[in-house]
Automatic annotation (TrEMBL):
MF-aspect GO terms: serine-type carboxypeptidase activity
Top-rank taxon, per record: Bacteria
Biological processes annotated in GO: peptidoglycan metabolic process; proteolysis
Protein name, as recorded: D-alanyl-D-alanine carboxypeptidase
Keywords, sorted A to Z: Carboxypeptidase, Hydrolase, Protease
Family under the similarity heading: Belongs to the peptidase S13 family.
Entry keyword Protease: yes
Record flagged with keyword Protease: yes
């Protein structure tokens, strides 16, 4: 397989530095030039869109429900030869480079309609999050929640115990939110009540984040991935995904668990409990008395958040809880093994699949386009709802998440659900599209040797191809 130049040299490293110095404004400039992930381009502003379509696929899924657009099984399948001709034209475009895989399948039957080098593993970028989300909901179930607790480790000594929730709120939790569903202020309220009943007003507080093991940083991550805000050190609890300030890509706290313990200590102090010393790491004793507990949003909602926002840190946490569910080490190695094992156990052909991390950020991950298509076809099977969130909770074209500013015109707008992927030299998109005739298709496009010039060129080619799929009445009289 041809060697790839590291994506972190040149424009990407410079853009990350600009973003760090200039804050959101600097990042938006880099985003507009397509050298960092984001929604902006230098493409001319499109005219105002027509009224938003009310097609079932374009409507937001009600909370805690799993829905798919109604499908007329009598709608003919598009002609495979015509679709293949469109795919080959896209793959051969100069903006796509020399390594392109495209697969299209009928969602209802799984029949492969297009296969342009689809079995060759390629760098997936953030489409790897589809595999991680699939594995997580399959291993734990979509209704699972992640608990954060405070236990009593001895007389006057408390331990904050992380359970994998990296989206804790600093204040009160918001039951309608995913990021911030559980709040450390609520946890403090519970603990203070128990302490008052026991007549205790002075404690020491430590933190136990041993639920996640191994290195906190993947070998394939660069320092600019942290300073540029693309990922946080992976620990078993964080406040607001370890963000140091509220913007899309802020620097992250270097020790998220200790930061969370400091936030809880401050909340206890505000409630009249003296906290002696500074929090340190420890391991909570087995069977310690629980003084308080808060729970995350459902795993389905957490997976949807990771797919909608393409958040690397959340995806890494999902990989680790998947590893725990399978009895594997909750490390990078255990998490990546767990994700591939879940796909294999589900009957998917994982030949050639390699993951360096669970988010697609690190160099060294390889997935075939064919595997991504098979994964979505399996997830969309209404007879097994466990993994349906992966099929229905991806960003919707022209409306949500990382597709909000893409595919904004008909026929694709509102009728494409797909996961984006962007690294230097890598552009990918995988998901579902409903044709104008009403036939649901599954597609994956991976290009991992795109020429210099940023994301705009290959994105245009891929988006044009997906628009052609959406508008295809191929083979119909």
């Amino acid at each position: 397989m041809a060697a790839r130049t590291s994506r972190r040299s040149g424009p990407v490293a410079a853009a990350a530095a600009v973003a760090l110095v200039l804050g959101a404004g600097g990042y938006l400039v880099a985003d507009a030039h397509d050298v960092v992930p984001g929604f902006l381009t230098l493409e001319p502003v499109p005219p105002p869109p027509s009224p938003f379509p009310v097609a079932p696929a374009a409507q937001e899924p009600p909370p805690l429900e799993i829905v798919l657009p109604p499908v007329d099984v009598d709608v003919p399948v598009p002609d495979a030869q015509e679709l293949t001709a469109l795919a080959r034209a896209a793959a051969d475009h100069e903006w796509m480079g020399d390594s392109v895989g495209i697969v299209v399948a009928d969602q209802l039957t799984g029949e492969v309609l297009v296969d342009v080098d689809g079995d060759r593993p390629r760098t997936p970028a953030s489409t790897a999050k589809m595999a991680t989300g699939f594995a997580a909901v399959r291993a734990l179930g979509p209704d699972a929640r992640l608990a954060t607790t405070v236990v009593q480790a001895g007389s006057g000594r408390l331990v904050l115990v992380g359970g994998g929730d990296v989206m804790l709120a600093q204040g009160a939790g918001d039951p309608t939110a995913v990021n911030g569903h559980a709040g450390l202020a609520d946890l403090a309220d519970q603990v203070v009540l128990r302490l008052e009943l026991a007549g205790v007003d002075e404690v020491a507080l430590d933190v136990d984040d041993t639920f996640f093991t191994g290195p906190r940083l993947a070998p394939g991550w660069a320092d600019t991935d942290l300073s540029g805000g693309f990922v946080a050190p992976v620990t078993a609890l964080m406040v607001n995904i370890a963000k140091t300030r509220e913007e899309p890509y802020p620097p992250r706290h270097r020790d998220p668990s200790l930061h969370a313990a400091q936030v809880l200590a401050a909340a206890l102090e505000e409630r009249g409990v003296t906290v002696t010393g500074a929090p340190t790491r420890t391991e909570a004793p087995e069977g310690a008395t629980v003084l308080g507990m808060v729970e995350s949003a459902t795993l389905r909602d957490v997976v949807a958040y990771s797919l909608q926002t393409s958040d690397n840190t959340v995806s890494e946490a999902l990989g680790r809880v998947t590893a725990h569910a399978r009895g594997l080490p909750t490390s990078f190695q255990g998490a990546t093994r767990a994700v591939i094992a879940e796909m294999t156990d589900a009957g998917l052909d994982t030949t050639g699949a390699v993951l360096a991390d669970c988010s697609g950020l690190a160099d060294g991950s390889w997935l075939p386009a064919r595997l991504l298509v098979d994964l979505v076809v399996l997830s969309a099977d209404p007879t097994d709802t466990a993994t349906l969130p992966v099929a229905v909770d991806m960003p919707v074209a022209g409306w949500q998440g990382t597709l909000a500013e893409r595919l904004t015109s008909t026929p694709a707008r509102g009728l494409v659900r797909a996961k984006t992927g962007s690294l230097r030299g890598v552009t990918s998109l995988s998901g579902t599209v409903v044709t104008v005739e009403g036939r649901p298709l599954v597609f994956a496009v991976l290009a991992d040797q795109t020429p210099p010039g940023g994301q705009l060129g290959p994105r245009r080619v891929i988006d044009t191809f997906v628009q052609q799929l959406a508008g295809c009445g191929c083979g119909l009289p």
